[in-house]
TrEMBL record:
Residues 58-259 form the MacB-like periplasmic core domain. This is Putative ABC transport system permease protein. The keyword Nucleotide-binding does not apply. Residues 304-421, 764-875 form the ABC3 transporter permease C-terminal domain. It comes from Cohaesibacter gelatinilyticus. It is a multi-pass membrane protein. Keywords: Cell membrane, Membrane, Transmembrane, Transmembrane helix. GO terms for cellular component: plasma membrane.
Amino acid sequence: MDQSALSSQGELTAGPVPSNRAISTELAKDGWFSQLKLAFRFARREMRGGLAGFYIFLACIALGVAAIGGVGSASKALTGGLAERGRAILGGDLALTLSHRPIAEEERSFLAQYGQVSEIASLRAMARKVDGSDQLLVEVKAVDDLYPTVGDVRVATKPDQAADVKALFAGAEGSDGGVLVAPLLLDRFGLSVGDQITIGTSTLTIAGNIRSEPDALATGVGFGPRVLMNLETLEKTELVQPGSIVRYTTRLKLDGDNSQARLQQIEADLKEAFPDAGWRIQSRGNAAEGLSRNIERFAAFLVLVGLASLITGGVGIANAVRAFVASRQTTIASYKCLGAPGRLVVLIYLVQITLIALIAILIGLFFAMLVPFGLALALPDNLPIASQSVFPFELLKAATFGLLTAWLFSMWPLLRARSIPATALFRDQVAPQSYKSNWQDWALLAVIAGLLIALVLVTAQVTQVAAIFLAGMAVVFVSLRLIAWMIMSIARRVPRIRQVIPRLAISNLHRPGALTPSVSLSLGLGLSLLVTLVMIDMNLQQQLTGNLQEKAPNFFFINIQSNSIDGFEDHLTKLAPSGEVQKVPMLRGRVVSLKGIPASEYEPPEGARWVLRGDRGVTYSATPPENSTLVEGEWWDADYKGKPLVSFAEEEARELGLSIGDELEVSVLGRTIKVEIANLRRIEWESMGINFIMVFSPNTFAGAPHAFLATLTLDGKGDVADQEASILKSTSADFPTVTSVRVGDALDRVNDLVRQLAWGMRAASSLAVIASILVLAGALAAGQRERIYDAVILKTLGASRVQVLAAYSLEYALLGLVTAGFALLIGNGAAYLVLDNVMELPFTSQPLVAFLTVLIAVIVTISLGLAGTLKSLSAKPARILRAG
């Protein structure tokens, strides 16, 4: 018989099947290597027919690999760029930061022996138009004559050359000095270079429009545009008063040897020489530590979403391999009849699947490698990209994810072909045979799954998050399989319906080879992830634009001097007689040690590390503050004079492992104070009122200079926007050194950042949705052969084209509707867990999301299903019946 002839189903086999003697000869050579060579030979022959039937397989793997590799490469490109330009971002090789005061002369002299020492001061202030018609919160940075010690400042008038900052500052005649400002300030005030603004008590000339500053990233995200001035001009503004919240940074640019080893030695010498200095030390290696950490966190999230799309695509991989094995049944039967053992059959097709997967992986890696180049073109100049363009480890990680996923989801249908006898394979198309697995099969699957899980956990930024993700994916998979089983069980038990169309649609839900399991799994995975992310996004937006703004005060006022606080309170009372004014003393402090352990050596959980990073706002009070509840311990007496005590936030104390009686060392105003925890408070952070992690007993800061912080909450009657504008204008004019922060503006700024992150989350989640649609399309396409046969039989029995279309449409609509309903339950549950346990925010159901989810699911399922059904209805009955 000609082995390359048409099979009984009218399909061509992959090519000539080797003779019995050829297989027997090769198998006589003992060992896996000989069988592997034989498998490669047969696989190569079978692949001459091309990649037909594997396009969705290719797309699913390529999409996931591109996502994982692209996100990993982008993260490394960004963090690598920050590390490479760390010296320019930091403004030197080492930086010492203190609040309220610059470093002492003795400390400055110690630094000067190693190189060039420069200094900057940073604070928030109010910039006003000279006529007082408008005002704006700005981020002031005052620099010395050495600035910039590394890199260049560039202004819009001469963007291609370094600006002479010192000359620009000095060239402002008829004012107290020159300043460089960000474009946003000019746009807001409608001003241009050469015009004047007022900051503090000084009138300043705009000497330039900042295009870029080398150390912009070191200061993080601000709530207002940058204003750059020199230290002499800052002194003239009278913004700096005793207790003012000013952050002083002293930078060291090493002379001669600037190796990492020397830098580490200098840092160690500084800590040894000034153990109680209370400063925060940064080196060029962590110049933008906060930004790098946020990039890595967001990248870790995106990698998990990419992995979710890859695993979702795994369903499509399994469908494609199952269809591929089914199309090769006669060939497999021939192999077995000629003496090929089951393991050789598995090897032949595993080699083919692996080679096809490698093609998909290469496609995905190609697009992943393009991501850093795209970032370099898209991102602004002040966000550096690493000089290295290709990141082999990230690409290798993505490729490994892709290969393991392909093996995991393709192994089950391959093992089925191995274990079923040749006679069953010949009959399988007419009477499908059950597959009896053994422990070796389960062991093999467990090994592959274990390798995939291990790779996820080992390469994850936060192992706990990765573990939760894997557990969640497993729960969703199992839940959707159970849902499919429930749909089929319920459909099987529905009483017989007299109408033909609904009866046919319902019977199709539970028939042998029904689409229900594959459609429920593929559509449900994508929809569940999409609903989860959208629910989180919308709840965050609601909190920022609704709940928080309703609870929050209208204004925060910063840097109110002690000798002005009573007059300032009277000023607010006159402007808003029915408003509520709160005031507290305000200082900045940094935790130096906890329970005798230096803060730099303390290892708290991720959620509490922010308490130990940099300095925090602190206060003192004779009575428990509002917006908090005493939950453990007792408050000190109003006239307490003993050992300094502190009240600590309860949740943060638990996470840091602190309890009543533990001792802390806190650096405030350059002085290290040892305090004992007297009680713990539960803080209502969501109130947006005045809250502090640490509240000290009043005797702790007796006689220390400090400023006050105040809030104003309006009664909400009348035109609130007009009232706020009037208060802001009057306060800026009467108290020019006080910084006024309108809470609505701050929340809008935060909302903008959240919205930008949300777009990134939506773009990432769209990958999983695309993968789901690909899998769904593959699943529906895989069932088209049976649909063609069914449609022909129905037409032969007298069913019209409209009736068949209606029956199939109803079936797809029911599948989409039920799957969407369960996806809503899963997505809402996941979003609730994230919001309630991780973000600690209330969860609110979003009916619009529910409606759109159901609508999308029904439309997508019907559209993809009917796209193939139309082809089924156009088939010639005679040809199909003769072939069947």
